[in-house]
Design goal:
Helix content is about 40%, strand content about 20%. By secondary structure, it is of the alpha/beta class. The protein is elongated and about 50 Å long.
């Protein structure tokens, strides 16, 4: 197996490192591994941050053959109350979605480290949310307003346990 990730600000990388350590797997940033190398592994665990309604770098594993694919996403929203259907349907074909186990992990945000485009995007999102009547704001909206301009970190090594258990189950089933 192999753990592959793409991380802009470090939270996805941290989760990838925790997962690789727990499973004793090699780890690569997605630019460091080729499609041919991916195909050599029985299990590919891919992690990407959630940005602008997409999974960072996901095309590496959706456009190339992976025998067994496990994906984890990392975003600031609370996975317990967030609907990821639109993002997943945009990233995967229906067949890929049916064959891929996906885990959503909560990361964080540090506004002082955001790139100018990301900072502008977050400011625009905040303005859009503030224009909505309070009763029309969802949990994602409230999360943006509560964390805007702050440095927050919701990441936790404990949250990788279901993913690690799932991958171990795949390994035992072989």
């Amino acid at each position: 197996m192999v753990v592959v990730y793409k991380s802009k600000y470090g939270k996805t990388k941290q989760y990838a490192e925790w997962i690789a350590k727990a499973l004793g797997a090699p780890i690569f940033e997605n630019a460091e591994i080729t499609p041919q190398e991916l195909a050599e592994h029985d299990i590919v665990i891919y992690g990407g941050g959630l940005y602008a309604g997409g999974i960072d770098g996901i095309k590496l594993v959706t456009k190339n053959q992976c025998k067994a694919l496990v994906v984890f996403t990392v975003g600031v929203a609370d996975p317990a109350v967030t609907d990821y259907a639109e993002i997943l349907n945009r990233a995967f074909t229906p067949a890929q979605l049916a064959a891929t186990k996906i885990f959503h992990l909560r990361g964080g945000i540090d506004y002082s480290r955001l790139s100018l485009p990301h900072r502008a995007m977050m400011a625009m999102m905040k303005r859009i949310i503030e224009k909505k009547p309070p009763e029309k704001r969802g949990s994602d909206d409230m999360g943006v307003l509560e964390t805007y301009g702050k440095n927050v970190d919701f990441s936790s090594e404990k949250t990788i346990a279901p993913l690690v258990e799932h991958v171990r189950g795949i390994m035992e089933g072989k």
